[in-house]
Amino acid sequence: MKNIIEINGLNKSFGEIKAVSDLSFCVKEGELFAFLGENGAGKSTTINIICGSLKKDGGTVTIDGLNLDTSLEEIKGKLGIVFQGSVLDKSLTVYDNLESRAALYGICGAEFKNLLAELSELLEFSDLLKRTVGKLSGGQRRRIDIARALLNNPKILILDEPTTGLDPQTRRLLWSVVDKLRREKNMTVFLTTHYMEEAAEADYVVILDGGKISAKGSPLELKNTYSGDFITIYNTDEKAVKSLSENYERVHDGFRIAVADTAEATSLICKNPELFLDYEITKGKMDDVFLAVTGKKIGGDDK
């Protein structure tokens, strides 16, 4: 797969504060790319530079082979953006919001109506078209935000905290739509999220800390590097677990033992088969990776 986003030596400061410092990474076409970081790590600063709404201090940004410095308008036509906060006009209806946005791309008349029918079916908002945005729930409004971002059939969909505060049903719908678009249109998705279970589904992850990259790789690579495995034993007593001389903790219905990797887990089980009659082995989670890399728990909004 080719690189559809290439960032090299990106720098941006606000006074004495370095928001991003010598940032370099690539995003491959068609992949789900997760960009993680705590408050003020530089995620939104980087996104705003990619979108052309913020000037960089140095470095190069290339989008689908185009240089940001010389081809900004053409690049904008390739992007669909769902911001953390909704940018819809609350006083207008859903229909009017989408119609006025589509007109900026030269989409009108029958072409717009056909596109609207497709998007409203995909995102399940046909019954909301005549309602003013201000009267929608958070989940309903988010569906319209995503429809707005898809009007120009973008090659890259940027999702900046897209599911924060949404109910599980709406989150499932949004991710099913994203998966469908990636599968059918090879759309690249650039995601920032505070939900580590969403990041765990990404093809590639970059973790920022203080405007610099602290770790990068696939979720499996990051888990193997920064988090061990766990064996959870069920239907046994604590005395038997303690006899293993391993660090463990009591969890609901069992005991969880931390091990370095799957090989160590296998060795421990083979040496004590009488104890491991009901158990499971699990990898560490992306939360464990993030905490190990940054020493912080993720949460809140980013600058």
Major sheet description? 6 strands, mixed
Judged by helices, strands and strand pairing, the structural class is alpha/beta
Head-to-tail CA distance between termini? 31 Å
Q: What is Rg?
A: 23 Å
Low-confidence stretches: none
- Tell me the strand percentage band: 25-35%
How do the strands of the widest beta sheet line up side by side? 6-7-8-3-9-10
Helix count?
11
The number of E-state strands comes to 14
**What is the string of SSEs from the N terminus onward?**
EEEHEEHEHHHEHEHEEHEHEEHEH
Q: Helix share of residues?
A: 25-40%
Multimeric organization: single chain
Would you tell me the overall average pLDDT? 93
What overall form do the CA principal axes indicate? globular
Overview of the structural elements:
This protein is of the alpha/beta class and 303 residues long. Helices cover 35% and strands 28% of the residues. The protein contains 11 helices and 14 strands. A hairpin with a 2-residue loop joins β1 and β2 (17-28). α8 crosses α11. The protein is globular, with a radius of gyration of 23 Å.
Which helices and strands occur, and which strands form pairs?
Blueprint: E1 3-14, E2 17-28, E3 32-37, H1 43-50, E4 58-63, E5 66-67, H2 72-76, E6 79-82, H3 94-104, H4 109-122, H5 138-150, E7 156-160, H6 168-185, E8 188-192, H7 196-199, E9 204-209, E10 212-217, H8 219-226, E11 229-234, H9 238-242, E12 248-251, E13 254-259, H10 262-271, E14 279-283, H11 286-294
Parallel strand pairs: 3-8, 3-9, 6-7, 7-8
Antiparallel strand pairs: 1-2, 1-4, 4-5, 9-10, 11-13, 11-14, 12-13
